[in-house]
Amino acid sequence: MYNAATSQRIFNELMNGRIINKTSLDNSNSFTENPLFTEIIDNLDDYRTQYKMSGYEFVESSCYIYIRERNADTNSLKTDITMKACVLLLLMGKYLTENNYRISKLIDPSGGLTEADFEGIQDMPDTAEILEKSAMKRDFSASIKPILVERNIMLQKIGSNAFILSDSGKAFFDEIVDNYQG
How far is CA 106 from CA 68, 98, 148, 166, in A? Predict the structure, then answer.
């Protein structure tokens, strides 16, 4: 049986364009089970029906869930926000590669990208031009919060100004790497 209070929180998250990840960061910056994700998985058929009746498609993977309009052409070009997220993740990957950082800097709770890293990304050749052509602010740091953090693709570590990828962020980053290798 679903939990009404948790269901309302889920509704607010999904309707505001956020992704619900399998895990979230706790107060000690360790990944912990996300109760919203667990609620959905425990009552998956109910949630699928609820959003289907409201004109949405429930998009689920083993580590994240989000909704999109049911009539959306999944074979068409990705949405504007998806394209922007992809550009930001690509720039992060380029920065890690060019500076010989391990991927763990981006995904491990003991790592994280800091403001100094964001400045380093901003200072890379072509970053400002790429951001501008992608219809984002020319400032990399200013683009991170509304596109990645507010949608739960990237998480801010508790008590610090460092950011790591969430479950969905890791999956999207892996997809980008797979698409652009070889």
Answer: 27, 14, 13, 10
